[in-house]
Amino acid sequence: MVSILLTNSPDDPVLIPGDDRGLAYGDGLFETLRVRNGRPELVEGHRSRMLAGAARLSIPFRARHFDQALEQAAPLIASRSGSHPLVLKLLLSRGSGGRGYQPSPNPQPRLLVSLHEAPPTLPEGGVDVCVSGIPLTINPYLAGLKTLNRLEQVLASTGIPQHCYEALMMGDRGDLREGTKTCLLFRWRGQWLTPPRHEVAVDSVMLRHLGRRLEEAGEPVMEDYLTPDKYQGNDFEGLLLVNSVIGAVLVKTLEGERLPHSEHLATIVSLAENL
Q1: What is the annotated role of this protein in its UniProt record (predicted)?
Q2: 77: which of 32, 88, 108, 190 lies 20 to 30 Å off by Cα?
Q3: Residues 167, 170, 172, CA angle at the centre, nearest 5°?
Q4: pTM
């Protein structure tokens, strides 16, 4: 049985026991869905990712539980719908029980559902980003899962200068692998590329959507590392930050150095905006 807990406002208290494994160990998953005009977006992709993560973590969570959460949130979304986008957050915990790290053989998951204001719209001209000193380390078994344990991203976020929107975390090849809250899509030598999906922290729902749209247009997204020889070379055509809440935004500068912006990047921004 999955307990669905809906908060009516950011100040609305919800009782979570102190032995909840999501609180104690980060034992769970979460999804953030952009809501516009009263409609959560990319629902199928978010549902699929949460189900895949739950299966890998052996948390008994089914599609019907995800859909029930959206149904219960619908009146709250309707009451707050307007011209401004919202963010619907689904936080899945394994629940209480178990001895230490070892979970109960019969977990009773909790799904916390909350609605928030979306972050401010980002400038059309792009954003400034920096490179974090915190490296990205990936456990192959957890790669791609949007787990509750995001301490690397928390540490990297604390060091973001005020003038920068995002910090990019480096992989084990000296490459730019992922942002603290965004994935990377770049254009090099006329190709769309993204870092290998099995070597990033989060398998982006928005990136997969964009990949399908580009595939339909005959421009498939390939996988490769974003190494200095690429983004510092003459064949580099630009970099985008992508996630389900912001869509896609141009990177204007990287560590103070201006990056190129080919006309192709505007196409991606439009695809992410017009779902």
Answers
A1: Acts on leucine, isoleucine and valine.
A2: 108
A3: 165
A4: 0.95
